[in-house]
Structures are given as C-alpha cells and as structure tokens.
Amino acid sequence: MDLYILWLVPAAYFVHILEETPRFVPWAVKYIGAPETFGQFVLGNVIFMAYVIIATSLAIFYPSELTLVIGLSAAAWIFSNFLVHAYYTLRTGEYSPGVVTASAIYVPVSLYIYYNFIGSGLLNTLDIILSIIIGFAVMYVPTLIQKKRKGTL
C-alpha cells in the first residue's frame, strides 16, 4: 500500500479551510460559541493542521504500528468534522460553512484511505478502531470543552 495517500488529508483540509474562512466565525459564534474571533479561527486551524501534517508525516516517514494508527486518525478526524457540519446543517436548516467540502471531499477521502488500510493488512481491527477513537477525540474533546466553558453543554 502506498502510504502517500495520507497526504490527501492535509490537502483536503486546506481546501476545507478555504470554504470556511469567509463565514465560519459568525456562524460558529451563533451555534457553537467558539471561535469568537478570526484570530481564534486561524489559531485553531493552525493547531489542527499541525496535528494533520505531523500525524501524516509520522506514518509516511516512520511507519510503525503506532505511527500508522496516528496517521490514520487524521482521516477519522476529517470524517468526524463532516459529521459536525452535517449535523448542524440538518439541525438548523442553515448552511454550515464547510459542509460542502466536508461532504464532497472529506467523506470520499477518509473512506478511500480507510478502505486501503483495511485491505492492506498493515493494521489489525483494534488498530483501526483505535485510530477512529483518536481522530474523533481530537475533533470532539476541544468542542465539548468549548461548549462546557460557554455553558451550552
């Protein structure tokens, strides 16, 4: 299996940021409570992009069971981000900035990567499940912390 398919994750994330940038902050303040400023939006995306690039790089350049799980977790992270956008779009009936790229790019990219990993035999079932747990935790733990801090949880 060519591990370089993992580079699809940061590429997809970059395109996703372009869709979110002009409208995400006002939308997020209304429905999630954070980020409250464009600066917070940029900082959050820098942190998440660092996670995605580091996870991907570790898996590609230093492949081991652990680094492959971490690299694969980035694909789970983008899929979980799709779920957030889809949920809020369906719940509010309002466009969630990022839902288009999350639906059109994140879903096929993450499923393609997981399909290839599962078929390759590089990781066992427990490793695959662990990568999903890590990716979803990276997405939802900060969101839950923000909601609790804002008193909306």
Query: Which band does the percent of strand residues land in?
Result: under 5%
What is the end-to-end distance?
42 Å
Estimate the global geometry from the Cα principal axes.
elongated
How would you characterize the largest beta sheet? none
Please state the structural category: mainly alpha
Give a written overview of the molecule.
The structure is a single chain. This protein has 153 residues and is mainly α. It is built from six helices and no strands. It has helices spanning 8-20, 24-31, 38-61, 65-92, 99-120, 125-150. Helix 1 (8-20) runs antiparallel to helix 3 (38-61), helix 3 (38-61) runs antiparallel to helix 4 and helix 4 packs across helix 6 (125-150). It starts with 7 loop residues before the first helix and ends with a helix.
Give the secondary structure arrangement, pairings included.
Elements: H1 8-20, H2 24-31, H3 38-61, H4 65-92, H5 99-120, H6 125-150
Helix pairs in contact: 1-3, 1-5, 3-4, 4-5, 4-6
Summarize the structure.
The chain has 153 residues and is mostly helical. It has six helices and no strands.
Question: Keywords, please?
Answer:
single chain, 153 residues, 79% helix, mainly alpha
